[in-house]
Specification:
19 helices; about 5% strand; binds arginine
């Protein structure tokens, strides 16, 4: 390609370190779309003749068909996907192929291709996140009244409903989708026409190519257009935030599936057995989702460090932008599919959850609140009396709700029979009826809103 200036071919190691075809062949569809938009524009601007433009279009169609049927055959001498397409085009249509690269550089070409790819990736993740949300909403609706312990420090804190717990992840996914939408809106400027770095002397029409490729418009600075990859960083950060959320649910499934908890039986379809311990049923899919979050965060870090201190404009370091994004995207897709599948099919053990909520004295705060509200104690005193009640219940092996009234009155004479109305886990959950709280009525209202949103998007 640059034979005019060079006497010797590249060293073998140069060829190897320089080649990106092994991974950037994933951009072939975007590369052909960019070339189609470019040749249409060159023809409309009378930069390339209608005859040559027609030949180039036909050649590009043939290449699309070949890649579709047989994949991209890698030739290490041809460096990247852009050279593969150009070379094949020349084989198919002869010297006219050389006109396609008029008023263009691989620098604006790859910046355009990669933006198109990331844009499609965002749309795919958004659809997967919507499916994940639907699964959460469906299961939350089944369990709007299922009581389980709510935790802080992974210690039983206050009873909550399983529906409430699941809807927490719905909210996280909602913010994740907004992060991806923000990233998409910022990404959607077309670099094509920035050429190598400074623009071009040919009378191109950047509005036309931007529009043909579904961009909001052309990027306003050619140096920036070919050399920044913040759109990929935006994608990777949104992917990382999503992966972190998934990893938290994955971790909860791992904990809940352990025998001492027994809150869930993870479906066979997402578990594995042990080759040596026949009783084992390992939550591998959940563990891998937890693990993948580390690699996705690592991909973000890889690109951050790649971009640090890069002077304007293009430098070959930028070729390393794609592997982390591709890897993160693949792992995020698998993670979302696995978590959606698990949420849809996991078997919740409502009786175990309820028993755990009752065993953990999770209604202690309700007792303290009752002492404040009904018996007029200052909260600190109420807290102390409640602590004594918890200790007494432990001594007798009872839950707070089972503690006889005489025992409670021995701790504080102001306690009356009426207290039992707040000591059950159901009463506790029902009382937390503040907006966004765990009371079944609140949870149902949030579920209805979530369903309406998903329906409005056509995703319910
Ligand atoms: N394969 C290259 C990349 O992905 C394409 C751009 C090459 N540009 C250059 N000036 N060598 O970054």
């Amino acid at each position: 390609m640059w034979g005019g200036r060079f006497d010797e071919g590249p060293a073998a190691v140069m060829r190897e370190i320089n080649a990106s075809i092994a991974f950037d062949k994933r951009l072939w569809r975007q590369d052909l779309a960019g070339s189609r938009a470019h040749i249409d524009m060159l023809e409309a601007q009378a930069i390339v003749s209608p005859e040559d433009a027609a030949r180039i279009r036909e050649g590009l169609d043939t290449i699309a068909q070949e890649f579709e049927e047989r994949g991209v055959a890698e030739d290490p001498d041809l460096e990247d996907i852009h050279m593969h397409v150009e070379h094949r085009l020349a084989e198919l249509i002869g010297p006219a192929a050389g006109r396609l690269h008029t008023a263009r550089s691989r620098n604006d070409q790859v910046a355009t291709d990669f933006r198109l790819w990331v844009r499609e990736a965002i749309d795919a993740v958004d659809a997967a996140l919507a499916r994940f949300q639907s699964a959460l909403v469906t299961r939350a609706a089944e369990h709007a009244e299922t009581v389980m312990p709510g935790f802080t420090h992974l210690q039983s804190a206050q009873p909550v409903t399983l529906g409430h717990h699941l809807m927490a992840y719905y909210e996280m996914a909602r913010r994740d989708r907004r992060r991806f939408a923000d990233a998409r809106a910022r990404l959607n400027e077309c670099p094509l026409g920035a050429a190598a770095l400074a623009g071009t002397g040919f009378p191109i029409d950047r509005e036309a190519t931007a529009e043909a490729l579904g961009f909001d418009g052309p990027s306003a600075n050619s140096l920036d257009a070919v050399s920044d990859r913040d759109f990929a960083l935006d994608y990777l950060f949104a992917a990382t935030a999503t992966a972190l959320h998934l990893s938290r649910l994955a971790e909860e499934f791992v904990i809940w599936a352990s025998q001492p908890f027994g809150f869930v039986a993870l479906p066979d379809a997402y578990s594995t057995g042990s080759s040596i311990m026949p009783q084992k049923r390992n939550p591998d899919a959940a563990e891998l989702v937890r693990g993948h979050a580390g690699r996705i965060a690592g991909a973000l870090q890889a690109l951050i460090v790649t971009m640090k201190g890069l002077p304007l404009a293009y430098a070959k370091d930028l070729q390393n932008d794609k592997p982390p994004v591709f890897e993160a995207h693949d792992m995020l897709g698998l993670s979302l599919a696995a978590m959606t599948g698990m949420v849809e099919t996991v078997d919740f053990d409502a009786a175990r959850m309820r028993a755990a909520a009752e065993a953990g004295h999770a209604t202690a705060t309700d007792l303290a609140d009752w002492l404040v509200r009904e018996a007029g104690l200052p909260f600190r005193e109420a807290h102390h009396a409640t602590g004594a009640a918890v200790r007494r219940a432990d001594e007798l092996g009872l839950s707070l709700a089972q503690l006889p009234i005489e025992e409670l009155q021995a701790i504080d004479g102001r306690i009356t029979d009426a207290v039992h109305g707040v000591l059950t886990v159901d009463a506790s959950v029902a009382s937390r009826d503040s907006y966004g709280g765990t009371a079944p009525g609140q949870v149902r209202a949030r579920i209805a809103e979530a369903r309406a949103r998903l329906e409005a998007e056509g995703k319910a």
